[in-house]
Specification:
This protein is 36% helix and 18% strand. By secondary structure, the protein is of the alpha+beta class.
Length: 440
């Protein structure tokens, strides 16, 4: 049976599984037609198909038994500057988890990376809370920490949980006290720059963004784009100008103000994942994050959840995720991908299947899915890899990418399920009252 025919059968099996015995019965063709029609009706692009897995050997991915494993690392875009040293360590015989941790530790140490570790954007109370997990394929162990304050390298703390306790996950104060007990120093993670961005958000942004119903609430409605005053574009421009002025008053430098204002208006997510495979076929993976900016205190996303933000099975492969953490938890994304590969799916098809499960959770409602995004980083035991995403990126100038190093370092665009670009959530930040009054 040829590979294309196999993929059709797998896809038909997938759709039959999801839509038989559920709330509705939908054929594979009907689902794709509905999704495309829904995207067109919402003014959004349709589903992209026809893509191939990346293959890291000279043999075909269809001949997995003949593919020779070799050192390879797959990571998120913010690992680009750190993967060279980590790859040299891996190629020199270093442990796969230690190699992956060398990549993710870079952004954790970087105060200018506001999505991970030191300098991460805080929760709504101005406190930085970090999450991480790791899995060591050769020994089939795992470690995780969540909601950790005052400890910079939580990726290493997750490994310490794995190495020095009989537990898998520690959270909050207990995780912090454990980290200190095994030698990690307490330090202030809120840099002056991140603090000023938070102050800007605190003064001008709604405190209710993460209260109210979420996208998955049956009563949630897309924001009304109409205004009673000037056009929305003019209101956005006015809001942006006022925030820039206040950013200057807070002491944010001219070269950083535009970025700061954008992070206030559109709270970012931020994470880094890395998977590593060595010559012997040993694998490991890890994921670390400061989580969603201005989140409710105590919120955990997918990054510390083994099976969601990261999953490694020594017999099959490794996968990790960045993006909408709540959505990924609900489909156990990384575990789903690895299990799909266990049952014969290619890395690309396995990742696409996980993305389609997110789409299914919203019944293909593009009015909601435009506010969701997800990127998966996938590495199979034979060295075949793939990077997939729900959307092509944040904008034409900010596509979703994965970083690959197999002796040659490169950045590659992901294969997207939907053409086009995701939109920030929470949607349509409220216009400050003082701005509205000018137009009343």
């Amino acid at each position: 049976m040829d590979e294309s025919r196999s993929r059709v059968i797998l896809a038909d099996t997938f759709f039959a599984f999801y839509f038989s015995g559920g709330l509705m019965t939908v054929s594979r063709r009907d689902f794709l037609t509905t999704a495309v029609a829904g995207s067109l009706a919402a003014g959004l692009p349709d589903i992209r198909s026809n893509a191939q897995d990346s293959v890291t050997s000279k043999t075909s991915s269809a001949s997995a038994k003949r593919v020779v494993a070799r050192p390879i690392m797959v990571t998120a875009h913010n690992g680009f500057n750190y993967v060279d040293d980590a790859y040299a360590f891996l190629a020199g015989g270093g442990d796969t988890l230690d190699a992956a941790l060398r990549v993710v530790k870079g952004p954790e140490d970087d105060p200018n990376d506001t999505s991970v570790g030191l300098g991460g954007l805080p929760n709504e109370e101005g406190v930085v809370e970090l999450d991480a997990c790791c899995m060591h394929g050769p020994t089939r162990r795992a470690g995780s920490v969540g909601g950790v304050r005052n400890i910079k390298n939580v990726s290493l703390v997750s490994k310490a949980v794995m190495d020095h306790t009989g537990h898998v996950m520690l959270v909050g104060e207990g995780a912090e006290r454990f980290a200190v007990a095994v030698g990690f120093p307490r330090e202030n993670l809120l840099t002056d720059h991140s603090r000023k961005i938070w102050l800007l958000w605190k003064e001008y942004h709604s405190l209710e963004d993460w209260w109210g119903p979420g996208l998955d609430d049956p009563h949630w409605q897309a924001p009304d784009v109409k205004t009673d005053a000037k056009p929305q574009a003019e209101l956005r421009e006015e809001r942006f100008r006022r925030l820039e002025e206040r950013a200057a008053e807070l002491g944010i430098g001219p070269e950083l103000r535009e970025e700061a204002v954008h992070k206030v208006l559109f709270p970012p997510t931020g994470t880094i994942h890395c998977s590593a495979l060595n010559e012997k076929g040993e694998m490991s993976g890890c994921t670390t994050t400061s989580g969603l900016a201005y989140k409710l205190p105590g919120r955990l996303g997918d990054s510390p959840i083994i099976g969601a933000g990261c999953y490694t099975d020594q017999d099959v492969g490794s996968a990790g995720a960045t993006g909408s953490g709540e959505e990924n938890i609900k489909v156990a994304g990384a575990h789903t991908i690895v299990e799909n590969m266990r049952h014969g799916m290619s890395p690309l098809d396995a990742g696409m299947d996980a993305l389609k499960r997110i789409v299914r959770n919203y019944n293909g409602d593009m009015a909601k899915l435009r506010f969701v995004d997800m990127t998966y980083y996938i590495l199979r035991k034979d060295g075949v890899y793939a990077g997939v995403s729900l959307w092509e990126g944040y904008s034409p100038t900010m596509p979703h990418t994965i970083v690959v190093h197999d002796g040659t370092k490169r950045s590659e665009k992901t294969v997207a399920l939907f053409k086009g670009y995701s939109q920030d959530f929470p949607p349509a930040p409220r216009v400050p009252a003082e701005v509205k009054k000018q137009f009343e």
